[in-house]
Amino acid sequence: MPLQIYIADWVLPVVAPPIRRGAVVVNNEVILDVGPADRIIKQYSGEQIDFEHAVIAPSWINAHTHLELSYLRGKVPAGKSFVDWIRAVVNLRAQTSDPEKIIRSAREQSEFMVNTGTVLAGDITNGYLLSDTLLDPRLNRTVFYELLGFRPQEAEEILTQALAKIRKERSPAIPVPHAPYSASAELITQIARLNRKPQSIHAAESADEREFLEKGQGAFVEFLKFRGVWFDAWQPPGVSPIQYLDRLGYLQPMTLLVHGVQVSKKDLEIIAR
Fold first, then answer.
1. CATH 3.20.20.140 location in the chain
2. Mean pLDDT by 10 residues, the chain (273 residues)
3. Which CATH architecture has domain 60-272?
4. What is the 3-state secondary structure (H, E, C) of 244-262?
5. How far is CA 26 from CA 31, 113, 115, 126, 161, in A?
6. In 3-state terms, what secondary structure has residue 268?
């Protein structure tokens, strides 16, 4: 098979500056060279495919998505606070118990992702989408099976059941805790000891989360009590979400910190380490 030379007005190598009127040389699906079209054409002989007014770029990677929640698109109102928004999501999920609708919407969204350039996703599931066969087969997924459980005495059972479900469905899913405000220290620690990589956790998402962990007060206390999952003996760790996860041993190489917008200089130093 002859070399293919793909040419476009712009080529984005990502690891180097954009190339105006660039080209990519491919041999048997392996990229051999990237550079200005003039140089590439002089240096290589092969089939030239000119996309003209287009951009050639690497395929997209969506590091964090919830395909399982695709059926809620356009239905979740903006909240006055982060906790208000979570309440809205929880309430809407409680109103839908149709697995076929959830899976159908997720598959449609997976098809949309692939058709618009995404080839790999870090996808969160709460159990409906443990199997890749339910979605567009062209989409590569790292599946994170997200676990919730604020009461420490329930941690072992929650993780045991999750691992059993993963084995039963022959899923490549990796069990992960949802967030520091929804998973007990025991659950986070037990998952960390599994040493599955990569791993994920929602962390440092809001000021409410910081207040909860640093002071043991705020909107999350009321929310957990409202949900009926509060643990009376719980004591706040008295540190930021990042410092808390570091203390629990969850910050390891290939840990994906989702959102992470409420961080201090010390937090950033911990993450960089």
1. 60-272
2. 93 95 96 97 96 93 96 88 92 87 95 95 94 91 97 97 96 96 98 93 97 97 95 96 97 94 96 91
3. Alpha-Beta Barrel (3.20)
4. HHHHCCCCCCCEEEEECCC
5. 4, 24, 22, 40, 47
6. helix
Residue 170, classified by CB atoms within 10 Å of its CB into exposed (0-12), middle (13-18) or buried (19+), is exposed
Where in the chain do CATH 2.30.40.10 domains reside?
Answer: 4-56
Write out pLDDT tens, residues 164-183: 999 999 999 999 999 999 99
Four-way CATH pick for 4-56: 3.30.110.40, 2.40.10.10, 2.30.40.10, 3.40.50.720: 2.30.40.10
Helical residues (DSSP H) of 95-154, grouped into ranges: 99-115
DSSP code of residue 24: E
Q: Tens of pLDDT along 84-131?
A: 999 999 999 988 778 899 999 999 999 999 999 999 999 999 999 998
Distances in whole angstroms, Cα of residue 100 to Cα of each of 65, 70, 133: 19, 12, 14
Q: How many CB atoms lie within 10 A of CB 194?
A: 13
CB 92 within 8 A of CB 76: yes
Residue 139 per-residue DSSP state: S
